[in-house]
Amino acid sequence: MLTKASTPETIGESVYRRIRSDIIFGILPPGQKLRLEKVSESYGTSISTLRELLNRMSAEGLIIAEGQRGFEVAPVSADDFRQVAALRLLLENHAMEQSFQLGDLDWEGRVVSAHHKLAVMERRMLAGDRLDQELWKRCDWDFHHALISACGSSVLLETHALIYDRYLRYQMIAVVFRGEVAAREHQQLLECALARDCDRAQAILVAHVDGCVEDALRNDAAGVFRNSEKHAPIFHSLKSDNSSSPPSAKKGESNPKRKSSQTVGKASSR
Predict the structure, then answer these.
(1) What angle, rounded to 10 degrees, do the helices at 47-59 and 36-43 form?
(2) 124: helix, coil or strand?
(3) d(Cα 147, Cα 214) in Å, to the nearest integer?
(4) Which candidate among 84, 130, 166, 195 keeps its CA 20 to 30 Å from the CA of 217?
(5) Domain ranges, residue 17
(6) One domain, residues 53 and 84
(7) Which strand (E) or helix (H) includes residue 33?
(8) What's the pLDDT tens digit per position in 146-204?
(9) pLDDT tens digit sequence for 1-17
(10) 235 with 259: CB under 8 angstroms?
């Protein structure tokens, strides 16, 4: 998870976070073979501890364990990106509904504070300062996490955090920055949170995530999906022929939660 440890870490836990971060931010690229001797030396840990950590990350979908052949960084594909994004939406939209219902004044304060930091980073990015992308994405995570932080379920938050990191990995590898569009959607999500307008917030989140996936697959700036099938967006548009855009969701529009759950169902049946 992108959140920093609040208590002192063991050496093993620190190495786990470092390797995990290097995978998520593309320092360890998809498909790279991980030679235990070399990796243990690079990260300053024993081979036995390293093997345990890599098996742990294998269960999270970030590492592929190849039996006697060792480990490699998990590959990427357009289809996997769609499935990860669909699962993120399913979890986040449900958690957001609960959070909007249960959130108190302290929750609103967390949301406002997190958005302020994210907005500052987005303005810097738009001005051309893109040197600290890790801080930018940490602020992005903090905002989305703040929105759902009052959902009342630690299991839901932990599961969402794992899926969010897999989604973030695609964003970083594919070099996704949608600029003013994403910044505007974040502002709209803030407004929805303060107004407790969950239906509109869910519609905006669907457009937010769908837009990121389609931008990554269409532009493919880093060439990571060159050999992957890129067609068929994972989310149906929330707009019908006679309806307005997601941020102005009206009565009679399709339920975004139903759409995202249908999408996951389709993805898992492939």
Answers:
(1) 100
(2) helix
(3) 24
(4) 130
(5) 11-73
(6) no
(7) strand 33-34
(8) 999 999 999 999 999 999 999 999 999 887 788 899 999 999 999 999 999 999 999 99
(9) 555 555 567 888 999 99
(10) yes
